[in-house]
Amino acid sequence: MKKVVKFGGSSLASARQFKKVGDIIRADKTRRYVVPSAPGKRNSKDEKVTDMLYTCYEAASTGGAYKKILERIKERYQEIIDGLDLNLNLDHEFDTIEQNFVKGIGRDYAASRGEYLNGIVMANYLGYEFIDSAEVIFFDENGNFESELTNKELSERLEHVERAVIPGFYGSKHDGTIKTFSRGGSDVTGSIVARAIHADLYENWTDVSGFLVADPRIVEDPAVIETITYKELRELSYMGAGVLHEDAIFPVRREGIPINIRNTNKPEDKGTLIVESTCRKPHYTITGIAGKKGFCAINIEKAMMNAEVGFGRKVLQVFEKYGISFEHMPSGIDTMTIMVHQSEFEEYEQSVIAGIHRAVEPDSVELEADLALIAVVGRGMKATRGTAGRIFSALAHARVNVKMIDQGSSELNIIIGVKNADFETAIKAIYDIFILAEI
Amino acid sequence: MKKVVKFGGSSLASARQFKKVGDIIRADKTRRYVVPSAPGKRNSKDEKVTDMLYTCYEAASTGGAYKKILERIKERYQEIIDGLDLNLNLDHEFDTIEQNFVKGIGRDYAASRGEYLNGIVMANYLGYEFIDSAEVIFFDENGNFESELTNKELSERLEHVERAVIPGFYGSKHDGTIKTFSRGGSDVTGSIVARAIHADLYENWTDVSGFLVADPRIVEDPAVIETITYKELRELSYMGAGVLHEDAIFPVRREGIPINIRNTNKPEDKGTLIVESTCRKPHYTITGIAGKKGFCAINIEKAMMNAEVGFGRKVLQVFEKYGISFEHMPSGIDTMTIMVHQSEFEEYEQSVIAGIHRAVEPDSVELEADLALIAVVGRGMKATRGTAGRIFSALAHARVNVKMIDQGSSELNIIIGVKNADFETAIKAIYDIFILAEI
């Protein structure tokens, strides 16, 4: 049994947080590979170390005053080292960093030092081996992550290392230049490590007790999703329910390794388990609700539309010409609706309408703006009759007018279009009927 | 006030039926232009005159024995003439017909004689002027109906004719050859006449008291639709609720002339009024339910599908290549379902799947056959919240699993996919909730 445990910035923001992390790791001997982020905010007014590093580098590399901020970064680490009673001195590391900053070695290098230093502190605290990610995670000369090479090197390196700390967020190009993943990329590092060691579980420790069924800004204290499949997660995260870095999913998914989202501040909570597939029945019929505002509907009418082979293709081609991707395309017999992002569409609005007229000679083209799309997602929906009935009854009861419905045969989700103004009301109504009423 | 009245074959199958028609026409002086079909069946074992004419012509034109069947055709008309006590002799017309049949003048000519002779009888019975449609309805040399020329000639001819009988179903090419519309084409003639005289109403008299909310083979004694818009009718008729010839709609629709479907055997029934648009609130929330079996769903899955501009277009292009028109295309985030007619799709099934793989490299393509589509149509749905909720609650209650949902912003219809086996149950359930429960 081997687990990879990744800790986010808020889990490592202070000595106090480090101690929680230490307790978590020591509580389970299989937590053998640790991927730390850089220290995050200790409170809402605090600064993240990564941001401080960027500021410091900006100044140092352009000949500006950087000593003060560098000192504050040092203090952040010193506070952790002192608080943990460690016998560790980072002076040498900071000297190297300062020299490199003044040389202008690169922003990615600067950004990565937060994880690098935190990795050294963590390894010292746990008594684990420290492995610099620059030695095991590789990017090609264009900055693209080299997944297969990394996997091979990392597997070999970790094969005989019982316990190790591998800092998140960065790796290196073949010339030694440091390169980072995009922001939040420590999630990706954890996933890459989990794949390389064939982990049984990838634990991703954050400051939330897992994914929530609905947005807490809309629904008060929403329930936590116990188990979610990758597919469900993708459907929800597309609609704006983001917690996990998207690229973090692929390395573990291909190996069938589950991800467990946990809360460092509430280690007793089970969090959310993300799996490839599961027989486990979900607690509620739906797994989650997510949505986005700012869509526009283009309604096309033409008598006998259905008899025209190629009608739909020609319409989509017009949108494609202007680089506009359509979200949904529900159709009646003589009517067709194309849902697009208003922001993408606005600039080309008139060109698209003219293009549709040229392409298919419709009887009419009408626009409706300020619409929102809501995705109700759940693998349990296929097995439960009446899900759609419950959703639309709840919406009717909440006086929400349904502008669009789209449900394909996968039966994994129902997409509902409503007015922007009804967005929050609709999500609350759906949440209440499935989670609070629990029917 | 001017009305065009068209009578179908069963309304004119016997002297008894003719008398009903006579009473109807005489009851309203504005019923000035009459379009008769050929005599239809008097009972379920009877033959239609048009079919007898085809048989007779087949024999006569190929040197076979035709006298007996020609005699039976004569008897059909003689029964009507005698039953109406008319002073009318069709010997001359039948001599001409016999000569032309033996000459092999054409199947369309043969078929058209049923209406032609019935027109003469009708004109004599009513004391209206008889106008041979060959003189006023025109086709070009390729057999395409010449709408503008016909409208001009017919308008001029009828301008000074107070009351006339114009037989349905046929016209002529410029060389005088008789050409018919497709079967059921008397509906079209009535519509053309209504347009030419700027009728206030086009009454289409049949043997049913209007369009029904649902198929009477599925729902027992369904309610009659009082008022339906052309758009609603088109949505329903496409799905198989056919009563009126489709081409019959266009001539009157462009002039805003309503069509009234009436029952010759129950003239007291108001029938169904077909209109361009109406402020009149429908009696029920939904106007009608129709559907068809025999669809197939092609489910395409691909991670990040939504991010690919052109994905939908490329998929549709594959279907287009094989001449397959898609009916609906509901989509999730990473999933897309294409609904097609199983009969159109089967032959090219494997080629289409291969084509999709080549075009968009999906993660998976799955087929689900034996599905039915149901269209719930109604202009009242937009104004009534909760329509969708009622539909899907009713289906859940009836234990019907919903495989697909499609509703665009026109809100004129909701399309529902179910298994073929659930088709009748689903239609009954929807009918019951809206019409019987009347909620």
TrEMBL record, chains A, B:
<comment type="similarity">
    <text>Belongs to the aspartokinase family.</text>
</comment>
<keyword id="KW-0547">Nucleotide-binding</keyword>
<dbReference type="InterPro" id="IPR001048">
    <property type="entry name" value="Asp/Glu/Uridylate_kinase"/>
</dbReference>
<feature type="binding site">
    <location>
        <position position="217"/>
    </location>
    <ligand>
        <name>ATP</name>
    </ligand>
</feature>
<keyword id="KW-0457">Lysine biosynthesis</keyword>
<dbReference type="InterPro" id="IPR045865">
    <property type="entry name" value="ACT-like_dom_sf"/>
</dbReference>
<feature type="binding site">
    <location>
        <begin position="6"/>
        <end position="9"/>
    </location>
    <ligand>
        <name>ATP</name>
    </ligand>
</feature>
<feature type="binding site">
    <location>
        <position position="115"/>
    </location>
    <ligand>
        <name>substrate</name>
    </ligand>
</feature>
<dbReference type="InterPro" id="IPR036393">
    <property type="entry name" value="AceGlu_kinase-like_sf"/>
</dbReference>
<keyword id="KW-0418">Kinase</keyword>
<comment type="pathway">
    <text>Amino-acid biosynthesis; L-threonine biosynthesis; L-threonine from L-aspartate: step 1/5.</text>
</comment>
<dbReference type="GO" id="GO:0005829">
    <property type="term" value="C:cytosol"/>
</dbReference>
<dbReference type="InterPro" id="IPR054352">
    <property type="entry name" value="ACT_Aspartokinase"/>
</dbReference>
<dbReference type="GO" id="GO:0004072">
    <property type="term" value="F:aspartate kinase activity"/>
</dbReference>
<dbReference type="Pfam" id="PF00696">
    <property type="entry name" value="AA_kinase"/>
</dbReference>
<comment type="pathway">
    <text>Amino-acid biosynthesis; L-methionine biosynthesis via de novo pathway; L-homoserine from L-aspartate: step 1/3.</text>
</comment>
<dbReference type="InterPro" id="IPR001341">
    <property type="entry name" value="Asp_kinase"/>
</dbReference>
<dbReference type="Pfam" id="PF22468">
    <property type="entry name" value="ACT_9"/>
</dbReference>
<feature type="binding site">
    <location>
        <position position="50"/>
    </location>
    <ligand>
        <name>substrate</name>
    </ligand>
</feature>
<dbReference type="InterPro" id="IPR002912">
    <property type="entry name" value="ACT_dom"/>
</dbReference>
<dbReference type="InterPro" id="IPR018042">
    <property type="entry name" value="Aspartate_kinase_CS"/>
</dbReference>
<dbReference type="GO" id="GO:0009089">
    <property type="term" value="P:lysine biosynthetic process via diaminopimelate"/>
</dbReference>
<keyword id="KW-0808">Transferase</keyword>
<dbReference type="GO" id="GO:0019877">
    <property type="term" value="P:diaminopimelate biosynthetic process"/>
</dbReference>
<comment type="function">
    <text>Catalyzes the phosphorylation of the beta-carboxyl group of aspartic acid with ATP to yield 4-phospho-L-aspartate, which is involved in the branched biosynthetic pathway leading to the biosynthesis of amino acids threonine, isoleucine and methionine.</text>
</comment>
<dbReference type="InterPro" id="IPR005260">
    <property type="entry name" value="Asp_kin_monofn"/>
</dbReference>
<dbReference type="GO" id="GO:0009090">
    <property type="term" value="P:homoserine biosynthetic process"/>
</dbReference>
<keyword id="KW-0220">Diaminopimelate biosynthesis</keyword>
<feature type="domain" description="ACT">
    <location>
        <begin position="376"/>
        <end position="439"/>
    </location>
</feature>
<keyword id="KW-0028">Amino-acid biosynthesis</keyword>
<protein>
    <recommendedName>
        <fullName>Aspartokinase</fullName>
        <ecNumber>2.7.2.4</ecNumber>
    </recommendedName>
</protein>
<keyword id="KW-0067">ATP-binding</keyword>
<dbReference type="GO" id="GO:0005524">
    <property type="term" value="F:ATP binding"/>
</dbReference>
<feature type="binding site">
    <location>
        <begin position="206"/>
        <end position="207"/>
    </location>
    <ligand>
        <name>ATP</name>
    </ligand>
</feature>
